[in-house]
Specification:
Elements (H helix, E strand, L loop, with lengths): L4 H14 L9 H8 L3 H13 L3 E4 L5 E4 L8 H9 L24 H15 L4 H9 L1
Antiparallel strand pairs: 1-2
Helix pairs in contact: 1-2, 1-3, 1-4
């Protein structure tokens, strides 16, 4: 499994906002500058995060983005899934139902399921608040 640039930048964007005071909207231009990421690219990353319910837009001269929840309530898994979609390590696990004609015979399926469970458990155990705390140390 490889996390794309979109997923990595989604995490950086959310972390940048979480590291601010939380009361004032954070302009996307400021995030782009701090993170060394193209403003245009961040504009493409914001909609899925907003659609997932993690960001709220504030318009106007002092506008920008705010987190909709406390950083302790948003996991890295939430963010990566919003930016990447399904994070299954193999295609046969990408949907809720395994739609593979070899599933009953597949000797490696338990391995892939275990890997998927380990990845999911880890990314869902780390919150934005954890990353902010780790950054402050």
């Amino acid at each position: 499994m490889v996390i794309s640039t979109k997923g990595r930048y989604a995490l950086r964007l959310m972390l940048d906002i979480a590291m601010q005071d939380g009361t004032s909207p954070v302009p996307l231009h400021d995030i782009a500058e701090r993170q060394g990421v193209s403003f245009k690219y961040l504009e493409q990353i914001v909609p899925p995060l907003s659609k997932a319910g993690f960001l709220k837009s504030v318009r106007g001269a002092n506008g920008g983005y705010l987190l909709t929840r406390d950083p302790s309530e948003i996991t890295t898994g939430d963010i990566l899934r919003a930016g990447e979609g399904n994070l299954a390590p193999v295609a046969c696990l990408a949907s809720d139902e395994i739609d593979c004609p070899r599933a009953d015979l597949c000797v490696t399926l338990p391995f892939w399921k275990g890997l998927d469970e380990a990845i999911t458990a880890y990314i869902d155990s780390v919150t934005l608040a954890d990353l902010v705390k780790d950054r402050a140390v």
